[in-house]
């Protein structure tokens, strides 16, 4: 292989920071590792996503403790990818919940995704020997769920398929804050390997319609104005559309996967080449676009073996 696989050489540690985006509403954000968050209620806390291992989750819990000593009773999963979910056991939450689509993904491909992601980005799985396996939600909902944290209304909404089948936002209406998961990224590579790319472009427009003045993206700095939210949505759409158009062009010329990747790289390098994790995601994004544009509705399950085979094909 001519290039290091995925992000195996990325060993630069990042320290997340709690950023207050509204009254008692916090993003837990780093430069470009996966973001999480939490909401402090009168009597309890809701954590938004769990990090990749119990060890990393305990770091998040310790940082929450610098803000409040109220118990973390609830844990919400914006979607399933191992890097966001395998720390769940450390929270010992009374209630873990997600969309039905996320629960289905956990059941269908949870272990395969775990093995795949650890192989792709080992730094993000510090203390992986402690992972007890998959922690399943206690409850799920199909489209929308309203939760009252004391007197505060919190809305959980599945706006449509996007980064995965089950992506769900957490909206705090009185604060104007939304936790968007990986539906939107802020000038970071957009991972599309488990996505529904045509649907994603429409889902981003539904996200745009949510009444928010601050947002936590999947990766990158939190957006702290309406304009910043709009710009992140636009740049995420641009990234997805650029790859789709490049692969569509490659297919029209009769190219296989490697040829489509080369065209995608030619189109994307000048525009996105300096974005964090771009070099990681491009091969997986091209593969998913290649499948979807040839009529494969649902993403194939990624395994460590499939990851390595793709990288060998693309970079041979």
UniProtKB/TrEMBL annotation:
Transmembrane segments: none annotated. It comes from the Bacteria. Gene3D superfamilies: Ribonuclease Z/Hydroxyacylglutathione hydrolase-like. Residues 33-219 form the Metallo-beta-lactamase domain. Pfam families: Lactamase_B. This is Beta-lactamase domain-containing protein. The lineage of its organism: Bacteria, Pseudomonadati, Pseudomonadota, Alphaproteobacteria, Hyphomicrobiales.
